[in-house]
C-alpha cells in the first residue's frame, strides 16, 4: 500500500477534494478498508493501535473514512430498524450516544450540500412551500430535503426523534419545531437561555439540568428502556477528551508561521460536530496535532503559500464559495489562523459533572453576551497574532450579524487590527458576490501592509 | 353615542401622544417610566413598583442611525426602536426591559448597552421549556431579577401584596380587552380597523386600572348601539403587528372588517391571565407557562394554525390575513405550516408583508384589493 503523508498536497487540491463540510464520499483511502473501532466498544482502544499493525492513515484519509462511516452507520441503523436522531450542531449528543442512537446533523448535511453546489434545488423547494428567502439557508436546505429526500450529497434517513439545543441561535428552535410537526416525531428540547451576564449563572445551570432530566425521561420513553447511566459516564469522558484534543490540535494555528491552513478548520469541524462522543474523534485530532507539529518542525505548512499576513475569520464559511474565498486570500499570502470555531466545540467538563456539562453547553460563544464575545475575538487576534480580521456578514445568521457592527468597533478599539466586512451566506450561493469579496480582501491587505510598515518603522 | 365619541377621542389622544402621556404621568405621580420591549414583559412588577410600564413597539420613522447597529435585514420594529433610542426619543424612560425571545432581540439587548447609555437595559430571558418544574423555577428567578432591578431604580422594596394587586389589575385589564375584541367584532361599522388597533395600542401608554375603566365604559356604550349586518367581509389578522395604521385603512376601504386578531402587539398581550395564587412571581411564571400559539413560544405541535381556524369559526370570519413582519424569523417559520392547514380547511389566506417604514402602500393596496375582490365573489361562509 502506498503511504502518503498529508501536508505536501497543494492546498488548493486539498481544498477541492475536501472542500465539503461533510467530506464527500471519496473512495476508501488508497484501498485501505480497516474496520474502525465500533461504538459499542467499552474501552478507549486506540484505533491507531489497529492502524499500526496495518498502515497509518493520514488525518485527511482518516477524516474521509470517519465521515463515510458516520453516514453509513446511520443508514445501517435505519435499515435495521434502530433509532436515528437528528440534532443541532452543539446539542448535548451525550444522551443519544449513551442510548446507542445514531445521530445525524442537518447543519453538517446542509453545509456539505452547499459546498458541493447542490443548494439551489433544495432552497427553491423550501421557498415553494412558503419558507421566506430571509430564513437561514441551512434550515431551508434541510426543510427542502424533508420534501425531496434527495440531494447531491449523501441522502440521510429521516429521524425517529430530534434533539435541539438553542445555544447557537433561536432559529434552530423554530426550524426543529417544524421538523417535529412535519414528520410527527418527538422533539427533545434543551433550551439554553441567552447569557446576558458574563458567566453562566447557577439559576441557568439548574434550569438546563432540569431539562437534562426531562431529556432522559423522554429518551427512556422513546427507547422503551432505562437510561444507560454507565454508558453515559463513558460518553462524557470521551466527549470531554475529544474536546480537549480538538482544542489542542486547533491551537497549533497560533504557531508562527502557522502549520495549519485555517480553512481546514472548516473541514475538521464537520467531525467534531458529528463524532465528538466517539473515541474515533480523539484519535483523529491527535493525528491532526501530530501532523501539524511535524510540519512546523520541518518548517512546512498546510498553507501552500508564504504566510505574509495572518487573519481572524469571523463567522461561518461561505460553503458554495469555499475555494474562491480561500484562493483570494492565498494569492495575497493571507492565512486564516484565528477562528471562533475551535472554541465552539471546546466543551470541557468532568465526567458525571452535570453542572459542568450544562455550563459548557450554555457558555458557547453565540450564547454569550457582547462583552464576552469581544473578549473572545480580542484573545484570538492577540494569541494567534492576527494582522487583521475578515467579518462575514452572513445573511443566514441574524444573531451573529446584529451584534457584529458593535463587535467590530470594540475589537478594533482594543486590538487596532484592521478589518473588512463582506456580504455572504453560509449556503445560499445567491447572496455572495465574488467581486465585492475580492475588493474587500484587497483593501484589507493594503491596510495590513500599511500597519506593518508603521509597526516596523517604530 | 356622544359619550362613546368622547371616550374614543380620549383613547386616540393617548395613543397619539405617548411622550406627553409619559411626561404627565411622571409629573403627577413623581414616579418613573419604564420601557417594555416586545413581546412579553412582566409589566405587573413595574406597575407594582409605582412606575409606568410603557410599550416600545417602534413606529414610523426615517431610519438614518440604526444602521450603525443593524444591517438592512433586521426587522423594522427593532430598526425603529433603535432609531428612536439613538435619537433620544426614549430618554424620558428610566430603563427598558428587553426580553430575548428571538435572535434580533438578543442582539438589540446587547447593542443597547453602548448605544443607549441614557436608558438602562433590564434583560430578561424567558424559558422555552416553560412547563417543566425547572422551567417554572427558572422563570421565577428571571422575574426576581427584574424585581431587584426595579427596586434599585425606585429605592423601595416591592411587596408580594403589591405585585399580587398589580397582577389582579392586569388580569382585569386583560379580561376587559378580551371583552372588547369580542364586542368589537359585533360592531365593525363603529369599531373600524384603525380604531380597533388604536384602542388596543393606547393601553401601552396608560395606567392599566384607568385604561380598563375607560374600556369598560366603551363597552357599555357599545352595548347600547344596535348591531348592524356588515355588508363586506370579515377577516382575522395574524402576525407581529398590523402597522403602519394607514395599512388598516385599506382593509376598511375594501370592505374588510377586522373581527379578531392573533397579533403579538394586540390579542397575544391579553390572551393569557395569570392564575390565582399567593406567590406573585410563581403566578407570573405560571402565566408564562400557559402562553401558547405564539411564534415566540416553543410549540413542537404547532397549534397556531388550528387556533386560527377555530377563531375563523368562532368569529364567523371569512378569511385570514397573515401580517408578515419582514425579516421576522419566528413568524416566517410558522407561516408554511399555517398556510398548509388553513388552505386545507378551505379558508382564504392573504400573505401581506409588513414593514413599519413602508413609504408606499401601493403594493399592499393591490394585494388587499385583489384579495377583497376574490372574497366578495365568494358566498358568506356557512355559520
Could you tell me the strand content of chain A as a percent range? 5-15%
Indicate how many domains the architecture of chain A comprises.
Answer: 3
Strand content of chain B: 5-15%
CATH topology of the largest domain in chain A: Rossmann fold
How would you describe the shape of chain A?
A: globular
Mean pLDDT of chain A: 89
Radius of gyration of chain A: 21 Å
Spatial arrangement of strands, main beta sheet of chain A: 2-1-3-4
What can you see in these coordinates?
The complex is a heterodimer of chains A (458) and B (383). Chain A is α/β, with parallel strands linked by helices. Chain A folds into 3 domains: 1-56, no CATH class; 58-228, Rossmann fold; 236-457, Rossmann fold. Chain A has 19 helices and 8 strands. Chain A has helices spanning 11-18, 47-53, 59-80, 94-98, 106-115, 119-128, 137-148, 171-183, 202-223, 229-250, 263-275, 279-297, 322-331, 341-344, 354-362, 370-383, 398-401, 404-415, 434-457, and strands spanning 84-87, 102-104, 161-165, 187-190, 309-314, 334-339, 388-394, 419-424. In chain A, the strands form 2 sheets. A 4-stranded parallel beta sheet of chain A has the order 2-1-3-4. A 4-stranded parallel beta sheet of chain A has the order 6-5-7-8, sandwiched between helices. In chain A, helix 13 (322-331) links the parallel strand 5 and strand 6. Mean pLDDT of chain A is 89; it is low at 1-45. Chain B has helices spanning 2-16, 18-29, 43-48, 76-86, 103-115, 133-154, 160-184, 193-201, 208-223, 245-253, 267-270, 280-290, 304-314, 329-344, 362-377, and strands at 33-36, 52-55, 95-99, 120-124, 233-239, 256-263, 319-325, 349-354. In chain B, helix 7 runs parallel beside helix 9 (208-223). Chain B has a 4-stranded parallel beta sheet with strand order 2-1-3-4, sandwiched between helices. The mean pLDDT of chain B is 97. Chain B contains 15 helices and 8 strands. Chain B has 383 residues and is an alpha/beta fold. The chains are: A alpha/beta (458), B alpha/beta (383). At the A-B interface, helix 8, helix 9, helix 17 and helix 18 of A face helix 5, helix 6 and helix 14 of B.
Amino acid at each position: 500500500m502506498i503511504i502518503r503523508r498529508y501536508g505536501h498536497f497543494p492546498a488548493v487540491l486539498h481544498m477541492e477534494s475536501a472542500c465539503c463540510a461533510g467530506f464527500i464520499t471519496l473512495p476508501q483511502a488508497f484501498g485501505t478498508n480497516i474496520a474502525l473501532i465500533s461504538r459499542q466498544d467499552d474501552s478507549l482502544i486506540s484505533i491507531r493501535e489497529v492502524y499500526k499493525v496495518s498502515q497509518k492513515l493520514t488525518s485527511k484519509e482518516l477524516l474521509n473514512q470517519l465521515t463515510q462511516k458516520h453516514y453509513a452507520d446511520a443508514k445501517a441503523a435505519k435499515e435495521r430498524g434502530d433509532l436515528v436522531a437528528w440534532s443541532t450542531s452543539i446539542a448535548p449528543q451525550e444522551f443519544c450516544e449513551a442510548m446507542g442512537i445514531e445521530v445525524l446533523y442537518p447543519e453538517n448535511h446542509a453545509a456539505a450540500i452547499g459546498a458541493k453546489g447542490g443548494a439551489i434545488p433544495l432552497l427553491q423547494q423550501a421557498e415553494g412551500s412558503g419558507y421566506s428567502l430571509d430564513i437561514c439557508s441551512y434550515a431551508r436546505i434541510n426543510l427542502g430535503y424533508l420534501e425531496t429526500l434527495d440531494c447531491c450529497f449523501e441522502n440521510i434517513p429521516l429521524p425517529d426523534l430530534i434533539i435541539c439545543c438553542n445555544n447557537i441561535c433561536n432559529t434552530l428552535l423554530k426550524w426543529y419545531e417544524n421538523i417535529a410537526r412535519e414528520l410527527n416525531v418527538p422533539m427533545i428540547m434543551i433550551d439554553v437561555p441567552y447569557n446576558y451576564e458574563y458567566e453562566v449563572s447557577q439559576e441557568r445551570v439548574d434550569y438546563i439540568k432540569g431539562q437534562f432530566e426531562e431529556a432522559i425521561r423522554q429518551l427512556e420513553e422513546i427507547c422503551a428502556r432505562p437510561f444507560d447511566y454507565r454508558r453515559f459516564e463513558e460518553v462524557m469522558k470521551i466527549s470531554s477528551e475529544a474536546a480537549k484534543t480538538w482544542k489542542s490540535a486547533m491551537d497549533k494555528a497560533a504557531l508562527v508561521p502557522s502549520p495549519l491552513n485555517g480553512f481546514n478548520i472548516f473541514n475538521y469541524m464537520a467531525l467534531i460536530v458529528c463524532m465528538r462522543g466517539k473515541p474515533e474523534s480523539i484519535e483523529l485530532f491527535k493525528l491532526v496535532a501530530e501532523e501539524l507539529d511535524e510540519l512546523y518542525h520541518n518548517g512546512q505548512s498546510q498553507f501552500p503559500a508564504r504566510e505574509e499576513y495572518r487573519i481572524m475569520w469571523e463567522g461561518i464559511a461561505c460553503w458554495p464559495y469555499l475555494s474562491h474565498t480561500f484562493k483570494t486570500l492565498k494569492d495575497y499570502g493571507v492565512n486564516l489562523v484565528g477562528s471562533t470555531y475551535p472554541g465552539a466545540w471546546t466543551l470541557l467538563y468532568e465526567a458525571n459533572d452535570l453542572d459542568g456539562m450544562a455550563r459548557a453547553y450554555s457558555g458557547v460563544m453565540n450564547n454569550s453576551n457582547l462583552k464576552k464575545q469581544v473578549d473572545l475575538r480580542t484573545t484570538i487576534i492577540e494569541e494567534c497574532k492576527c494582522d487583521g480580521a475578515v467579518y462575514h456578514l452572513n445573511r443566514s445568521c441574524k444573531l451573529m450579524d446584529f451584534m457584529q457592527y458593535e463587535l467590530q468597533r470594540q475589537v478594533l478599539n482594543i486590538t487596532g487590527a484592521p478589518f473588512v466586512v463582506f456580504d455572504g451566506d453560509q449556503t445560499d450561493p445567491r447572496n455572495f458576490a465574488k467581486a465585492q469579496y475580492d475588493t474587500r480582501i484587497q483593501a484589507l491587505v493594503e491596510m495590513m501592509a500599511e500597519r506593518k510598515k508603521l509597526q516596523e518603522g517604530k | 353615542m356622544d359619550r362613546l365619541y368622547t371616550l374614543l377621542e380620549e383613547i386616540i389622544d393617548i395613543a397619539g401622544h405617548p411622550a406627553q402621556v409619559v411626561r404627565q404621568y411622571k409629573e403627577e405621580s413623581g414616579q418613573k417610566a419604564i420601557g417594555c420591549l416586545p413581546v412579553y414583559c412582566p409589566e405587573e412588577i413595574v406597575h407594582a413598583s409605582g412606575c409606568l410600564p410603557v410599550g416600545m413597539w417602534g413606529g414610523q420613522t426615517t431610519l438614518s442611525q440604526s444602521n450603525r447597529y443593524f444591517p438592512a435585514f433586521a426587522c423594522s420594529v427593532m430598526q425603529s426602536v433603535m432609531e428612536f433610542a439613538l435619537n433620544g426619543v426614549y430618554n424620558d424612560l428610566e430603563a427598558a426591559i428587553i426580553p430575548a425571545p428571538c435572535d434580533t432581540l438578543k442582539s438589540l439587548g446587547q447593542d443597547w448597552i453602548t448605544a443607549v447609555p441614557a436608558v438602562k437595559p433590564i434583560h430578561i430571558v424567558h424559558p422555552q421549556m416553560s412547563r417543566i418544574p425547572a422551567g417554572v423555577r427558572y422563570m421565577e428567578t428571571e422575574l426576581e431579577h427584574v424585581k431587584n432591578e426595579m427596586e434599585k431604580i425606585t429605592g423601595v422594596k416591592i411587596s408580594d401584596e403589591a405585585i399580587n394587586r398589580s397582577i389582579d389589575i392586569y388580569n382585569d385589564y386583560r379580561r376587559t380587552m378580551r371583552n372588547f375584541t369580542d364586542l368589537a367584532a359585533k360592531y365593525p361599522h363603529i369599531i373600524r380597523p384603525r380604531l380597533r388597533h388604536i384602542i388596543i395600542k393606547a393601553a401601552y401608554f396608560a395606567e392599566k386600572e384607568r385604561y380598563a375603566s375607560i374600556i369598560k365604559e366603551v363597552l357599555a356604550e357599545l352595548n347600547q348601539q344596535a348591531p348592524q349586518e356588515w355588508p363586506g367581509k370579515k377577516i382575522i389578522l395574524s402576525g407581529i403587528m398590523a402597522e403602519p395604521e394607514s395599512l388598516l385603512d385599506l382593509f376598511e376601504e375594501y370592505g374588510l372588517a377586522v373581527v379578531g386578531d392573533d397579533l403579538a402587539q394586540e390579542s397575544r398581550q391579553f390572551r393569557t391571565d395569570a392564575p390565582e395564587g399567593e406567590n406573585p412571581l410563581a403566578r407570573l411564571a405560571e402565566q408564562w407557562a400557559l402562553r401558547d400559539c405564539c411564534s415566540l413560544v416553543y410549540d413542537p405541535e404547532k397549534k397556531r394554525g388550528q387556533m386560527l381556524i377555530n377563531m375563523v369559526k368562532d368569529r364567523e370570519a371569512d378569511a385570514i390575513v397573515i401580517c408578515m413582519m419582514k425579516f421576522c424569523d419566528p413568524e416566517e417559520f410558522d407561516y408554511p405550516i399555517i398556510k398548509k392547514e388553513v388552505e386545507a380547511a378551505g379558508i382564504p389566506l392573504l400573505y401581506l408583508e409588513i414593514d413599519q417604514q413602508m413609504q408606499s402602500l401601493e403594493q399592499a393596496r393591490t394585494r388587499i384589493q385583489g384579495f377583497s375582490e376574490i372574497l366578495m365573489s365568494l358566498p358568506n361562509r356557512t355559520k
